[in-house]
Structures are given as C-alpha cells and as structure tokens.
Backbone:
C-alpha cells in the first residue's frame, strides 16, 4: 500500500484483494480438490492489479456525474465492474477449466463487494478475530495488525473442509509408502514367487469371468435395425456402437490374458511388464478400461459383467427410457445421440435442440411415473460434497450420517433419478445451481481419451449457487467408494 493517499475504503478493498490472493494460492495445496490446474499469481501481477483497482475507484469517485458530497461513498462504486476486472483481467488465460473459472468468480464475488468497503465485513464461515477487514488508518497501524495475524492459514479461508489438507498429505504419503513396501518385498527372499502366484491367481480369475463371445448378433432386437429413410435412429446407432466397443475391448483383454499365461514374470516383454505389476498390486490396468483410472480388480470384474448385461438387455429390449451411465464406454456420445434421435423424430435440425437435465423426486426407475413422453432418465449417480434433500428435492448440506457412509477421499450421497428432456425452445434461467456431471469423480473435462465432463444438471437451491460452486459440488456416474 505504501504511503499513497488512498481513501479508507480503498485500503479495505486492498485488504480484501490480498485475502482473495491468499485464498487462491492456499487452494493449490489441496491438489485437484482445490484447482483442477494449479493457479499462481506473481507479486508483480498482484501489485499491478492493486493499482488498477485503486485507479478504478478514483475514476468512479472523481467522475463529473457523481455529486461531490457522495464521491467518497462506497455505495457509488460499481462493484460489478471491479469483480469483472479481477475475474477476467487479473489471470488472463491462466485459468482454462470451466469449473475453476466458476470457483474463482465465486471467490471474487465473496471478497470484493459493498460490504468489504464498510470495514465490518468478513468472508463467509471465517472467524472475525482472524480474517476481518481492518479499520487501520495508517500504514503503521496496518503493519501492527498484520503482525498479529495467525501464522497458520485457516482452511476455511479457501472454503475447504478441516480434514482436506490432511487427507491430501496422507494420500501422498500412502503412495510413497506403497512404493517403498513393494521395493522391500522384492528384496526379500521368495517375494517374487509370492507376487507371481498372486498375479497368476488374478489372471486366472479374469480369464474365468470374461465372456467368451461378448455381445452376439442374436441379442439384437429387430426394431434396432429398422432403418427408415435409410438411417438408423440416433439411440439405435449408439447402442450398436457400444456393442462394438465392448466386443473390441473383450477381445483385447482376452489377448492380453493369453499372453500373460504364456510368459512368466521373469520373461515378460516390456509391453506387458507395467501391466503385470498393476495387476500384482490389485488393480486393473488402463488397457482394461480405456482410460487412466485405477479400479480394484474384484470390483472391476463384478461391474464389468453388470455393464455387459445392461447393454445386452438394451439390445434385446430395442428401446429404453432409463440409462445407467456407468455402463457406457462413450457416455458423452449418449447425449449427442439423444439430440440426433430428437432431430430425426421431429424433422428439425439437430442444432435447434438442447438437453434440459433436472432433478426428480424418484429414488429408482421403479418409481418413475411418466408424465413427459419425451423425457429420458439417468440413474446410478452420486453427488459429491452435497446431497439432494429427499423431502424438498433441493440441494442441501451433507449430514453427519451421510459423511459416515463416505470415504476418506470423497464425501458423497446417492442421487435421485435425473430427467433429461430434449427441447427445441430456449431454456429459461431459473437461478438454480447448474451442477456439472462427470463420468469419473474428477473435476476435469478429460481423463486420458475419455470425455469426462458430460452435461449440467439443474438442482433447485434455497441458497445462492456460489455456495455450492465454492464447495466444489459435482455429480458423478462412478461410485466414489470404489475408486482409488
């Protein structure tokens, strides 16, 4: 701040800006739970932004259209303009993920607003004795105030849970210890033979459970192959493509299992060595899933068989209204297929349709009472860091009982059925929380070749959407409890 002649509310604004900077930087220590991609701000960037904001205030205060008696009132300041200046200009193109942009914009609105200029403001969920805007009149008073601040950052400053930082550190330590343990086991006499026997057992189990022929043409309902005007319906084409993907993956897994049976651990080719050790650790390799994500072998075998049966049931039925997204190898393609299907059904251009995804009160597909013939339904979903209240159908905080059923990595609750309706008219803004839906429980658009981000789901909320954005609430198709 130096000794420049800033107004009182300019000084308070700069303090709030510094607090925002601290929250942005502190969030990096929580890994992907904080920011999908790390965000860093240099002292030079911070200084430039501070001066830019003060100049913005001076310009508003000295404006010829502002009466002189009210030029120093914070109520005359365009806080929307300051928020836009910080959110869009400060970091430039540094934040590229949509969800990170939403989170950062939420922080900006919480820290830079009219209340911040009054001197009695503290960010939500903060202890006023630690993180409140000071009423310092001089630079020396500010130095004294700063020296009394706590040395350890409060986790609530960046809207994270009390145990989030500890969890992140424990996870990193567990990975390191696991690697050291494996190295030690390999040094011990007979460790290699024990690991080889364990891996051979896993390979044999996968070979036994793997379908011999995959999905057959005999499973296909003739309705699916009905090509009117020379074209298959969008959903019919999609399920046939899923059938090909599964059959291709089954053949690939069978080939790999065959090679592993032929070679001992000591004579494995380089292409199979990493795959072998992944199986030895109790997880399935990327070659079995198609994307870099670890599943325990036992859970994966059970789920893989269920997914194949789901596709087989769809092929036999010919048409379904409920979709288990976890069973799909190309889940993003389903939403495109729904648009194409609607375009063919109504004879309108596909670009004229959009998908309206909303929360329903149905707990399972058996409860669905169809009131909209055009609606489709998604089930088997989970909400992370919040839940849908079964009585009000609104988004709500997780209770202590909900958290007991969560894991050390994720706090989550099962979702009710989601309805998805293709609409040709423009959707109206409802003010609800547009919750992102991801295939895997990771807030990123892609995981390897997998399109992880699928769509947004409108969740009614009695609280501002910024609350749920800051808490990093999202929906996932994959049970967080079964993932590493």
Residues:
């Amino acid at each position: 701040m130096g000794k420049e002649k800033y107004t009182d509310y300019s000084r308070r604004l700069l303090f709030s800006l510094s607090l925002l900077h601290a929250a942005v930087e502190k969030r990096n220590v929580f890994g992907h739970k904080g920011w999908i991609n790390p965000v860093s701000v240099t002292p030079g960037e911070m200084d430039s932004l501070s001066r830019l904001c003060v100049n913005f205030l001076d310009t508003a205060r000295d404006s010829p259209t502002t009466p002189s008696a009210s030029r120093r009132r914070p109520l005359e300041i365009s806080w929307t303009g300051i928020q836009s200046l910080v959110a869009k200009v400060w970091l430039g193109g540094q934040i590229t993920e949509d969800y990170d942009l939403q989170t950062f914009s939420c922080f900006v609105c919480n820290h830079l607003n009219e209340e911040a200029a009054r001197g009695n403001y503290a960010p939500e969920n903060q202890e006023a004795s630690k993180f409140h805007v000071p009423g310092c009149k001089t630079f020396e008073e500010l130095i004294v105030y700063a020296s009394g601040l706590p040395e350890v950052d409060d986790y609530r400053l960046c809207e994270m849970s009390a145990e989030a930082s500890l969890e992140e550190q424990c996870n990193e330590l567990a990975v390191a210890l696991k690697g050291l343990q494996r190295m030690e086991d390999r040094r011990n006499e007979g460790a290699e033979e024990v690991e080889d026997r364990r891996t051979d057992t896993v390979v044999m189990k996968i070979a036994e459970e793997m379908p011999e022929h995959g999905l057959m043409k005999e499973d296909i309902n003739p309705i699916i192959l009905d090509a009117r005007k020379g074209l298959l319906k969008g959903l019919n084409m999609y399920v046939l493509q899923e059938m090909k993907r599964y059959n291709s993956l089954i053949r690939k897994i069978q080939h790999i299992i065959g090679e592993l049976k032929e070679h001992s651990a000591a004579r494995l080719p380089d292409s199979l060595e990493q795959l072998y050790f992944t199986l030895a650790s109790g997880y399935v390799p990327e070659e079995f899933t198609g994307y870099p994500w670890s599943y325990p072998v036992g859970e994966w075998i059970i789920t893989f068989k269920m997914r194949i049966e789901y596709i087989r049931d769809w092929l036999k039925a010919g048409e379904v209204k409920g979709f288990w997204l976890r069973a799909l190898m190309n889940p993003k393609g389903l939403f495109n297929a729904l648009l194409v299907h609607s375009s063919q059904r109504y004879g309108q251009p596909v670009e004229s349709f959009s998908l309206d995804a909303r929360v329903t009160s149905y707990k399972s597909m058996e409860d669905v009472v169809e009131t909209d013939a055009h609606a489709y339904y998604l089930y088997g979903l989970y909400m992370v860091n919040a839940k849908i209240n079964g009585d009000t159908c609104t988004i709500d905080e997780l209770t202590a009982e909900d958290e007991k059923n969560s894991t050390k990595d994720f706090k989550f609750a099962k979702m009710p059925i989601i309805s998805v309706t293709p609409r040709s008219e423009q959707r109206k803004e409802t003010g609800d929380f547009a919750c992102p839906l991801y295939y895997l429980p990771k807030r990123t658009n892609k995981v390897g070749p997998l399109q992880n981000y699928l769509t947004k789901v409108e969740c009614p909320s009695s609280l501002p959407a910024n609350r749920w954005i800051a808490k990093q609430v999202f929906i996932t198709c994959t049970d967080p409890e079964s993932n590493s």
User: Anything to note?
Assistant: Confidence is low (pLDDT under 50) at residues 1-5, 65-75. The first strand starts at residue 322 and ends at 324. Residues 59 and 77 are 10 Å apart (CA to CA). The two ends are 46 Å apart (CA to CA).
